[in-house]
Amino acid sequence: MAGALPLGDPAPPDGRLPTHIRTDELTDFGVYLHVPFCRVRCGYCDFNTYTATELRGTRQDQYADTVLQEIALARVVLAEAGTQRPAKTVFFGGGTPTLLPAGDLVRMLDGVRGAFGLADDAEITVEANPDTVTDRVVDELAAAGVTRLSVGMQSAVPHVLAALDRTHTPANVGTAVAAAKNAGLDVSVDLIYGAPGESIDDWRASLEAALAYAPDHISAYALIIEEGTKLHRQIRAGQVPAPDDDLQADMYELADDLLAGGGYEWYEVSNWSRGSGHRSRHNLAYWRGFDWWGFGPGAHSHIGGLRWWNVKHPAAYAQRLSLGDSPAAGRETPDAQQRILERVLLETRIREGMAVSDLPSSDARRSVAGLVADGLVDGASAVKGRVVLTRSGRLLADAVVRALTV
């Protein structure tokens, strides 16, 4: 289970937004649907997920009905806040969404469609563990309008998968990718690098395997050790080594080289796609500060500058909705300084970068020249008024953000 929720302010039981929060048709709207169930908890995972023994009476077969109750609540709340907008993106994340029957995922998607409508070109993504994907599952999802399957590959090397507590075999990834392609879905594969005992040659093997599947999109994330996880405890006890920053940097550069050579372009620090048409529009909506409603226990939402988050445990989530109350645990409206810091943090991560004129101060704008000189920001883009990270800048993105928020 993930760490504590933010503090924030109390959220009203009816879930209504403050009167000054208004929606408008010029801001894209997306939907996130959290499915918090996993067969086994991976040692590195800090997400709000639960295995069967942690559910305390909550039933997976009732989960879709519970989410539909929150969707009905959201429809009323958003109707009162202004313009109703169709969802341009829908993302089923987790956890392992495909632990639920495909029919349950379809019912939740139909609930979104009925409450808000879906844009004609809506991107609808389902995350999946490779060993939960079958032809029947993806055919049912595709028939319901799902457009994209995101497969949690993580590695092609058995001992690396074991270090991460992943339960699937490398062969299952190819089966899942083939099933999705046969159903006409776009395919993304997710990789993690820097696991205990993973060598640069292991990482090369995983990248080459991912490229051989010819997906439309590849994500590659450095392993981060989150406090409270099994892996954090193992490292603290000296049972396994902590990730090596220099090795992870080498792994990132190798990924960028091999993926670029395979026809993929980076569009966000950890994401590559076959052209702009295969980027994750849902994740881009987060990085660009659009609106979204997150459904499910622990899910976060953002509408018109207001943020809120739901209670974490599925039992508490279900109980609140059964009483007709909002599952929101707290909310906040970031001040101007917090908003600009977040904007710099997010916009500089994407390929288009951020306008120099939008930086928060004259000192920050003057710092761009130094970042160009240090090789962290692209000089040609800076001349055109954009802060765009070089590959070295992507490796040191946090340092760039600190320099740009003085």
TrEMBL record:
Keywords: 4Fe-4S, Chaperone, Cytoplasm, Heme, Iron, Iron-sulfur, Metal-binding, Oxidoreductase, S-adenosyl-L-methionine. Belongs to the anaerobic coproporphyrinogen-III oxidase family. HemW subfamily. Residues 23-265 form the Radical SAM core domain. Probably acts as a heme chaperone, transferring heme to an unknown acceptor. Binds one molecule of heme per monomer, possibly covalently. Binds 1 [4Fe-4S] cluster. The cluster is coordinated with 3 cysteines and an exchangeable S-adenosyl-L-methionine. PROSITE patterns: RADICAL_SAM. One of its GO terms (molecular function) is coproporphyrinogen dehydrogenase activity. PANTHER family: COPROPORPHYRINIGEN III OXIDASE, RADICAL S-ADENOSYL METHIONINE DOMAIN-CONTAINING PROTEIN 1, MITOCHONDRIAL. SMART domains: Elp3. It comes from the Bacteria. It is found in: Cytoplasm. InterPro entries: Aldolase_TIM, Coproporphyrinogen-III_oxidase, Elp3/MiaA/NifB-like_rSAM, HemW-like, rSAM, rSAM_sf. Signal peptide: none annotated. This is Heme chaperone HemW.
